[in-house]
Amino acid sequence: MPKIYLIDVTNRDGVQTAKLGLSKLEKTMINIYLNEMGVFQSEFGFPTTRHERNYLLANLELAELGVLKPIRLGGWIRAIAEDVETTFERLPKIKHLNLSISTSDQMIAGKFQGKKTRESVIKEMTEAVTLARKRGAESVGANAEDASRTDINFLVEFGLAAKECGANRFRYCDTLGYDNPFTIYEAAVTLAEKIKMPIEIHCHGDLGMAVANSIAGAKGVIDGGQDAYVNTTINGIGERAGNADLIAFILAATKSKNFAGKYEFGGEIDLKCASKISMFASYAFDVPIPINQPGVGANAFAHASGIHADGVLKDPENYELYGYEEIGRGEPISVETGREIITGQYSGISGFSHVMGKIDVSFKNKSRAEANEILELVRYANVESHKPLLEDELLFIARYPQIAKKLLTMTPLDH
Ligand SMILES: [Zn+2]
Hints:
This protein has 415 residues and is an alpha/beta fold. It contains 15 helices and eight strands. Strand 3, helix 3 and strand 4 (96-102) form a beta-alpha-beta unit. It is globular, with a radius of gyration of 23 Å. Zinc ion binds next to loops.
C-alpha cells in the first residue's frame, strides 16, 4: 500500500509570507524540530538567493554531521536551467530539489505575457530537471504552479515529461487555494494513475480548505496507486491565508473518521513534538497561535459548559478526540516573575554565564576565550532575530559554534 510522506515548506513558503520572516538560526531550529518529529523532508530554502547561501551550506553540514538526519533537505528554485546551474555552483552538495514553473493558461497568458507557451513550459522544465539530475540531484520534484487551474490533460503531459527525464515526484500546487476536497481528489487520482509517479499535494487556505484538501488529495494519490507527499507549514503560516497546517494535517490523517488504518504515514511521526514546534514557530514568526487552533490552541482542550465539563471529567473521550499528552502538552510552562537576566546584542559575559548556568551549560570547563566567542555569536544571533534567544537556540550555539558562525555570516554584494 502506498504511503503518506510530509514535506514541510515553512522555511520556503512560510518565510515568503508578506510581513513575516525568520532568522537563519530560527530556520535551522525549525529543521532540527522537523527532524525530531519525523517529517520526511524540509524545503529548507532558496539556493539561488544569495543571503541564504551560508545558511543552506551550514544546514547541509549539519546533515553530514548526522544532526539533521534522516530528514531530507530540499531546495526550491525555478524550473529553468540557469537556476539549476547557480544552485550547483553555490551548493555542490545539495541532493534534493523542487523545480517550479507555472502551468495554467491564466499564468501563461497573464504572467508570462506571450513569452511562453505550453510547449515551452514543458521544454524549460525538462531541460531543468535533466540538468539537475546530471549535476547530482538525488531527488527532483517537478512543480506545476497553479495546477488547480490547469487543464488536467496538460498536467498529465507535464508530469509524464518530467518523469521521462528523471523527476521523482510531481507537485500539484493549488497555488490559489481554489480546489475543494472533491475536485482535488479527482485530480489526484487521475494524476497518480496516468503519470504513475509519486504526487505531491500543495494546498493553500484561501477558501478555508487547506487541510481538508490535503487529506482529500493524499487519499486520491494513494487510491491512484502512488505515494502521496503532502506539503505543510507550521501553524499554517504561508502566503495570504496560509498553507495546510502541519499539526492539523497529522491529526486529520491519524484521527479522522475512516482515514487512518487505510492511509498511513511512511515513517514514524512523533506527535509529542507538536506543541514545542508550534510554540517555537509562533515565537520566531511573532504570530500568536489562535486559541482555537487544532491540537495546539489554548482552547483545544478547554471545557467550560457544564455538560461538557462533566462529560469530559467522567471520560475524556466523551468530548475529546485525542488527549493533550499526545500533542506534547500538559507540562507547566514557567514564566519568570522576578529578576530576569536576558542575553542580547549588548550582553556581557557575567550575565551570559548566569543565563547559560540556568540551562545547565557551565562555562567552568571552557576557557574564557571560548565563552566569549559563544557570547559573541549569541549577540549576533540577537541582532538578526531582534528577540531574546530561547534555550534550545543558546544550547545549539554552545554546541555548534562553528556552524552558528556560518549561519550568522552574511557578506552583502560579495560576488
Ligand atoms: Zn505555496
